[in-house]
């Protein structure tokens, strides 16, 4: 059994809503400004926000929306293509695009050959400390 299109619409609407709220809080951008800067029409962004679309959003538009907000495209695609309901998940997917962007940036820094070994060690140690603190709190 696979997810209904309405579920993908709801998940993507949630993703877009979080992205627009983050843009408003962090950059002072309105929905209209997000639309203008991304090249995606205002009506399309509002349809995405409401989950009111008949066909999946076009990839170039989703890519432009994510690019202007510094969000990983993968986060948007995961929202658009949730796993089948009978597929077990190790952990719930992140829906906060800001968190997704931070995680992607950390992964990029760890994979970047220009990042020094000392910086990589510091990043790993910080992540380990956070993970251990979270497991103790549970």
Automatic annotation (TrEMBL):
Top-level taxonomic group: Bacteria
Database matches in Pfam families: HTH_3
Gene3D superfamilies: lambda repressor-like DNA-binding domains
Domain HTH cro/C1-type intervals: 20-51
Transmembrane segments: none
MF annotations from Gene Ontology: DNA binding
UniProt-recorded name of the protein: Helix-turn-helix
UniProt organism field: Micromonospora coriariae
């Amino acid at each position: 059994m696979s997810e209904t299109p309405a579920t993908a619409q709801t998940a993507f609407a949630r993703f877009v809503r979080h992205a627009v709220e983050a843009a408003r809080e962090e950059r002072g951008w309105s929905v209209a400004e997000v639309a203008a800067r991304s090249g995606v029409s205002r009506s399309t962004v509002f349809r995405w926000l409401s989950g009111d679309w008949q066909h999946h959003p076009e990839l170039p538009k989703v890519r432009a929306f994510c690019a202007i907000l510094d969000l990983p495209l993968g986060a948007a695609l995961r929202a658009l293509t949730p796993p089948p309901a009978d597929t077990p998940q190790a952990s719930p997917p992140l829906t906060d695009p800001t968190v997704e962007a931070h995680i992607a940036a950390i992964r990029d820094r760890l994979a970047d050959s220009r990042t020094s070994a000392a910086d990589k060690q510091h990043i790993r140690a910080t992540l380990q400390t956070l993970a251990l603190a979270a497991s103790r709190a549970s």
